[in-house]
Amino acid sequence: MPLLVMKFGGTSVADLDRIANAAAKVQREVERGYDVIVIVSAMSGETNKLVKWVNDTAVFYDAREYDAVVASGENVTAGLMALRLQEIGIPARSWQGWQVPINTTAQHGAARLVEIPRGNIDQKFAEGMKVAVVAGFQGISPEGRITTLGRGGSDTTAVAFAAAFAADRCDIYTDVDGVYTTDPRVVRRARKLDRIAFEEMLELASLGAKVLQTRSVELAMRYNVRLRVLSSFEDASDTSGTLVCDEADIMELKPVSGIAFSRDEAKVTLFTIEDRPGIAAAIFGPLADAGVNVDMIVQNISEKDYDEAHPGAVTDMTFSCPIDQVPRAKRAMEEARANGLIRYDELIIDDEVAKVSVVGIGMRSHAGVAATMFKALAAEGINIKVITTSEIKISVLIDRKYMELAVQALHDAFGLERA
Ligand code: ASP
Ligand code: MG
Question: What separation in Å is there between the alpha carbon of 152 and the centre of ligand 2?
């Protein structure tokens, strides 16, 4: 039997009517001859409520019990979905993570998938079951405790099942009808993409486009799972939504496919550090130890001249990190200075910045993307503070107040708007 994985996010199972709507979509696929594995999220708002209950009970909570509580949202929807399917005449059964079992590591709250044995579910399919409904987001640790995969983890559950069961496709039903060139709330004429390559999606996902959990895209890329993002509020056809796929399956690679942005960035500069071998390690080692996710890094000649207090060459180091990690970054740097690991004159924090990135696999073979980007920003009088590039991405740090303007200008400059 060909097999399909269908994942329904929180808004798609928000109440009984929506569960019925989702079940009808499953029914359609069963009638077309598929066995289906349905992965469900908790009803929307449920996980947030459970997390809050945990926090309100214990500030320094035991992560095992956090997982026991927050995993429960998915149990409810899995059972209800199986019941609804049975009501419309489809042989269905629900599974919680431990029953499959979905084996994970013991990192509670952020567990990693280790293995999903097919035996239990395959046996039920062999006995005539048409739909296995599996609670997303959860698993079981080697110690036999309930684990969760981190917020948004049901996407990753879905892709893992698609890989383990060699599914024809993994359909992710959500409240948007696909992946867009940029956020339609910022650019009204943003266009839905029919296809996007795994690597592009990975960049967009990690840059703040929140349609899919980043890990699910990594997994899909590793196992070449065809992943489709589509709305559960529309009637799907075979071409609805956006297919996230191998670049070989995309006819024409545009230099730029999408524009991502992130508001929650900060820029940290250490002025007048020694310019010597090992200085970067002395800075970024302690930052890593403090759990700071450093993103962009620039080292440049210091404006400051040589002075008595700093014999030898000096330089400045600038990096960016998420804004909520600034206190940690600051403390790590102050400690490194106190311990004599590094020296600097001043530590300056600019927390009024945003990151805007253009992403496209076609960039590899098209020259001039950077020039077009910088020209478009210059035309709007937007100053660039930091630039980084990779093979398929160019990112700039700019003043946050110009972020929307920059995204719109770049969207226009690369011709991404709807016809
Ligand atoms: N219910 C979980 C969350 O809200 C997992 C998911 O929906 O993907 O994070
Ligand atoms: Mg989600």
Answer: 4
Q: How many domains are contained in the chain?
A: 2
The answer on 264 and 170 residing in a single domain is no
- Flag whether pLDDT at 300 surpasses 90: no
Burial call 71-108: b when 16+ CB within 10 Å, e when fewer = bbbbbebbebbbebbeeeebebbbbbbbebbbbbeeeb
Answer yes or no: are the C-beta atoms of 14 and 48 closer than 8 Å. Answer: no
CA angle 318, 322, 325 (to 5 degrees): 90
Q: Mapping DSSP to helix (H, G, I), strand (E, B) and coil, where does residue 163 land? A: helix
Q: What is the mean pLDDT of residues 50-72?
A: 96
pLDDT at 309: 59
**Residue 290's domain is classified under what CATH number?**
3.30.2130.10
Is the CB–ligand 1 distance for residue 97 below 6 Å? no
Question: Best of 43, 47, 159 to mutate for ligand 1, by most ligand atoms within 8 A of CB?
Answer: 47
Does some domain include residue 208?
Answer: no
Task: Give the domain extent around 265.
Answer: 260-413
The stretch 395-407 carries a mean pLDDT of 97
Instruction: Give a yes or no: residue 119 inside a domain.
Output: yes
pTM: predicted TM-score of the whole model, two decimal places: 0.87
- The helix (run of H) or strand (run of E) holding residue 138 is strand 138-140
* 197, part of any domain: no
Instruction: Looking at the structure, tell me whether residues 165 and 17 fall in a common domain.
Output: yes
Of 146, 175, 204, which residue sits at a domain end?
175
Give the pLDDT score at 303.
61
Tell me if 138 CB under 6 Å of ligand 1.
Answer: no
Q: By CB neighbour count within 10 A (0-12 exposed, 13-18 middle, 19+ buried), where does 355 fall?
A: buried
